[in-house]
Specification:
The chain has about 350 residues and is mainly α. Helices cover about 75% and strands about 0% of the residues.
Length: about 350
Amino acid sequence: MAQVMINFRLDEETKKSMEQACREMGLTMTTAFTIFAKKVGREKRIPFEVTAEPYPAQAQRRPAAARTDYEEEPLMLTKKQERLEQLCGSVRRSLTAISVAIPSSITGLSMERIRLLCGDELKDKAAAAAKASRALFSGKTAGSLAEKDLNILDEYADALSAIEAELLDLERTLIPAMKSWQGGDTDVFAPYERRLAALSQRFDGLAPLLNRFLCSAACRSGARAVKARIRQAGAPVETPYVLTALDNLEALVLRHYDGLEEQTRTRLESSYLQTLELTLGELAQAEREGTDADGKAALCLRAINVLTQVISDSSRARQEWSRRSLEAEVEALERLAAMRGDIAGNARPEG
């Protein structure tokens, strides 16, 4: 494809700052501008928020408490992603090291099997595991990870970690054994062959485990599951005051939702929350199309207010019921004590 030259002016300080940032990322300014241009051309929009609001104020839009809870799960998922990447990289390095170290002078069934396992079978399975791990944190899958049973993902990572540990041990023992081999019976390598074959079976167990994780329902219940639904529905929305209202709603959900009566929670999830999800979807569509976003935003605020009111009223009612129950229990204990002559019938505990 033919290339064209584009010239434009940029103040010197901005140019130096961008050059430094690009160097740290391993990019040139030309590459950075090309990435920007392609993204704009593909998405038909500026690929970041453009606002007249000062950045510090925008960054502080969410309440501190809500922001802390928001950042907890992405950080946890990032750590899991980093762990999987590290494990996959270590497995690949060990397999490569063993495969490269196999001398052509050693023959025999066991060594041929080792050569095939490290050079083809295990290498392909390790590549498949790495590809599946990468796919978890990209595309549509990444947005739903927090709603799944992360304990299963930990099981997957632990299984991969066990494979990595076994390969590291094989790397430390098999390679020296091959280098020190002076000829003779090659059956001495049979135990290594069996260990590598067992690793191949372990690899086969990774895919079902990952599939079980992907098929797991929202592992969390109550407040955290509702919060996940609200966050997912509000993800495409860009209207700042709606996002702020959603933050406040999620904070309220985390504080009070699990204390609501079952009937109230069922009504909220089956009716009110679905209405909110629908209105948020309509708002996001209006924002994309540039139509009546303000009107849709007003509907979203009404739905948020209804949810807030229901949760607050139900929570206060439950607290009032708990307080009255406690008072009744104290009075009953006082009557019992009076009957036993421990305290006067009209006496009340101090404090």
